[in-house]
Design a protein that fits this description.
With 462 residues, the protein is of the alpha/beta class. It folds into three domains: 13-44, no CATH class; 71-279, P-loop containing nucleotide triphosphate hydrolases (Rossmann fold, 3-Layer(aba) Sandwich), CATH 3.40.50; 284-456, Ribosomal Protein S5, domain 2. 24% of the residues lie in helices and 24% in strands. The strands form five sheets. Strands 6-5-7-8-4-9-10-11-12 form a nine-stranded mixed beta sheet, with helices on both faces. Strands 13-14-16-15 form a four-stranded mixed beta sheet. The chain has a three-stranded antiparallel beta sheet with strand order 2-1-3, with no helix packed on it. Helix 7 (334-347) crosses helix 8 (373-385). 39% of the residues are buried. InterPro entries: AAA+_ATPase, DNA_repair_RadA, P-loop_NTPase, RecA_ATP-bd, Ribosomal_Su5_D2-typ_SF, Ribsml_uS5_D2-typ_fold_subgr, Rubredoxin_2. This is DNA repair protein RadA.
Length: 462
């Protein structure tokens, strides 16, 4: 009797569009990257395809003979924006601008678009979130009206590509990539498949036409860019626009940049008349008081490669009942501030156990690097002793649990910026000046412990 054999039917599998995680059963959430709605069905048995070599249009050349003029960056006219981009926009480059709603992304790009148009280049601004009349009103408010700035309100990808074909712009701005949809792909606008298709089509036409492209991107609740992770890999530059809703200060950072550095930071002032670059924003973070006040200390923080002066203010209230003392901070990491307060209490004998302590930054700036530890400690000690730190003094350094002051990076650059703004004294960790040279007109005190720093700040006697 012949044996019967049954052919096995290939079962379909499922794969995450974000990270490539595979599973035999469908799941609403990826088990690897924990993204929702990214698991898609893939075919059962993969087919092997062979690509036939095609005719080469242009032979490969020695690298030294490649023309680099086509990759020269053209300035946008917004100096702080150009600083972050690495000099301007490269023809064919695709820049993704991400940020929270209301932070000022559209205002910045509209201002840059008008300046590019004023330089003689054609700009196509595609708005998919607002009507053309709304964008026109904003442009009138910030003074961004120009004849070479073209405006279109479209949400269909094919229509957007038609506008590009007809107007042949030098710069294309799409606001935003999550609200444009393609009729060739299933799903609503903003979905993983739609964002991948829209971004891929715009990137292809940008490379073919050597057309610089700016894409506005939404962010999720945790601050990451909405859509597939491959979106960040496809574009050339990823910029993050940050800022508190109740503050006028806006910071622009380059998370990824194929044409320039990723440690530059652009500073902007968002007001009723538009957005203005701040080449010297240190004045926003330092209060102007006629007399020295106890509980304040100036430090220099590095935002990328840019030194910024910031003021820390501390207030220590009267004694409370045991166990009810509060620790309140604004603009600083709460856990790190609690650690510095514990070091001050244990190593310096500062009475803080039963006293409410408040530490805040001026101007709403956020300070996260360890170099502000010494300024926090001196500000709190100054508030407790009611002794103001001498005017014209800055302090920077990381404080360890043993009470030592550790070295931080970029000390010469920080001191040069403080000296340029008129500060005459600095308290820094020991060994910070390798060459032993201090900026002209500045006295630098190198300290090894927190107790030495308090002596140099004239908070305690030797």
């Amino acid at each position: 009797m012949p044996t019967r054999t049954s052919a096995k039917t290939a079962r379909p599998g499922y794969r995450c569009a974000e990270c490539g995680w595979t599973t035999a059963k469908w799941a609403g959430r990826c088990g690897e990257c924990q993204a929702w709605g990214t698991v898609e069905e893939v075919g059962g048995t993969p087919t092997v395809r062979t690509t036939v070599p095609a005719q080469v249009r242009e032979p490969a050349r020695p690298i030294a003979e490649v023309d680099v003029e086509a990759a020269r960056a053209a300035p946008t006219g917004v100096d702080e924006f150009d600083r972050v981009l690495g000099g301007g926009l490269v023809p064919g480059a695709v820049v993704l601008m991400a940020g929270e709603p209301g932070v000022g992304k559209s205002t910045l790009l509209l201002d840059a678009a008008s300046r590019v148009a004023a330089s003689g280049r054609t700009v196509l601004y595609v708005t998919a979130e607002e009507s053309a009349a709304q964008v026109r009103l904003r442009a009138e408010r910030i003074g961004a009206l120009h004849a070479r700035l073209l405006l279109a309100s479209e949400t269909d990808l094919a229509t957007v590509l038609g506008h590009v074909e007809r107007s042949a712009p030098d710069l294309l701005i799409v606001d935003s990539v999550q609200t444009v949809a393609s009729g060739e792909v299933e799903g609503a606008a903003g979905g993983v498949s739609q964002v991948r298709e829209v971004a891929g089509a715009l990137i292809r036409v940008a490379k073919q036409r050597a057309m610089a492209t700016l894409l506005v991107g939404h962010v999720t609740k945790d601050g990451s860019i909405a859509g597939p992770r491959t979106l960040e890999h496809l574009v050339d530059v990823v910029c993050q626009f940050e800022g508190e809703r109740h503050s006028r200060l806006r910071l622009l950072r380059a998370v990824k940049n194929r044409y320039g550095p990723t440690d530059e930071v652009g500073c902007f002032d968002l007001n009723e008349d538009g957005i203005v670059g701040l080449p010297d924003p240190s004045g926003l973070f330092v209060s102007s008081t006629p007399e020295p006040v106890a509980g304040t200390c100036i430090t220099v923080t590095l935002e990328g490669r840019r030194p910024l002066l910031a003021e820390l203010q501390s207030l220590v209230a009267t004694d409370q009942s045991p166990g009810s003392a509060r620790r309140v901070t604004s603009g600083l990491d709460a856990s790190r501030m609690a650690m510095v307060l514990a070091v001050c209490q244990r190593r310096l004998g500062v009475a803080l156990a039963n006293r409410d302590t408040f530490v805040a930054t001026v101007g709403g700036v956020k300070l996260t690097e360890p170099s502000v530890d010494l300024a926090v400690a001196l500000a709190v000690t100054s508030a407790v002793t009611d002794q103001p730190i001498p005017p014209g003094t800055i302090a920077l350094g990381e404080v360890g649990l043993a009470g030592e002051v550790r070295r931080v990076t970029g000390v010469p650059r920080r001191l040069s910026e403080a000296a340029r703004l008129g500060f005459t004294s600095a308290i820094v960790p020991a060994g910070s000046l390798a060459d032993g040279k201090a900026p002209a007109g500045m006295t630098v005190h190198e300290v090894a412990t927190l107790a030495d720093a308090c002596v140099r700040a004239r908070l305690v006697r030797e």
